[in-house]
Design goal:
This protein is an all-beta fold and about 250 residues long. The chain has one helix at about 225; strands at about 10, 10-15, 20-25, 30, 50-60, 65-70, 75-80, 80-85, 90-95, 100-105, 110-115, 120-130, 140-145, 150-155, 170-175, 180-185, 190-200, 200-205, 215, 220, 230-235, 240-245. The chain contains one helix and 22 strands. The relative contact order is 0.19.
């Protein structure tokens, strides 16, 4: 079954890839799951504390110059290529494919993100509202060892193998070979969101209203105790996705 657009169900929010907001210029192409910059729709302001999921493709030698943020948890997941980060707290690093960066903007921070390589790069930038405003800015970056057919913890305040932000959430990344299935991990929080990076999946269990197929760029928000989805099955040899547990 192909999931319908604008699924309206108390326990489900479906965001088809082709219905996301789109921005493009001569060096940047960006797809926005929620309202962002010049795109505004009161029906798509986020999901729980999840405010932004942007998929950005940045040309070689280009990027975002110094700009400011405050009171937001900003997570960058590098998919392809690399990006050079520099900020007003004197952090300077190169974020490469497989790396995850988390930045707590707190009381205010300036940063730049420049693709100084000779190839385009692709990344997800995610914004999450912190539990408390006015915190001290913070920065961390890790290389996440991606193993096929295993949920890899990226963010989790109760897991020493993962990073934590200024809000109790869980985030996993999953790569799943074609024809393989995996159970959803234990979700500790009342809301969840699946964001497809590459490939395609089907989902078993759930209610009759649950979309059963998700493809690259699709997003699905759900309430685990109501939706009752149990298992993910890969129908593509390049399946790659993120799963959020949201407080």
């Amino acid at each position: 079954m192909t999931p319908p657009s604008n699924t309206c169900h108390p326990s489900l929010v479906f965001r088809p890839a082709q219905e996301r907001f789109h921005s493009a210029n001569n060096w940047l192409e960006s797809w926005h799951s929620f309202s962002f910059a010049g795109h505004h729709d009161p029906n798509w302001m986020g999901f729980g504390p999840l405010r932004v999921i942007n998929v950005d493709t940045i040309s070689a030698g280009r990027g975002f110059g110094m700009h400011s943020h405050h009171d937001m948890e900003i997570i960058t997941v590098m998919i392809e290529g690399e990006l050079q980060h520099q900020d007003s707290a004197k952090n300077h690093s190169v974020i490469q494919a497989g790396d995850v960066q988390r930045m707590s903007a707190g009381t205010g921070i300036m940063h730049s993100e420049i693709n100084q390589s000779e190839q385009t790069c692709r990344l997800l930038q995610i914004w999450i509202e912190p539990s408390q405003q006015g915190l001290e800015p913070a920065y961390e970056q890790r290389t996440i060892a991606l193993t096929d057919q295993e949920w890899i913890p990226v963010l989790d305040p109760n897991n020493s193998e993962a990073m934590a932000i200024a809000r109790p959430i869980q985030l996993w990344r999953l790569r799943l070979a074609q024809g393989k299935s995996i159970q959803l991990p234990k979700l500790a929080y009342p809301k969840a969101w699946i964001q497809m990076i590459n490939g395609a999946i089907s989902i078993s269990g759930g209610t009759a209203a649950s979309p059963s197929n998700l493809c690259q760029g699709d997003g699905l928000g759900f309430h685990p105790t109501q939706a009752k989805m149990s298992q993910i099955h890969s129908s593509s040899n390049q399946t790659d996705l993120l799963l959020f547990g949201l407080s």
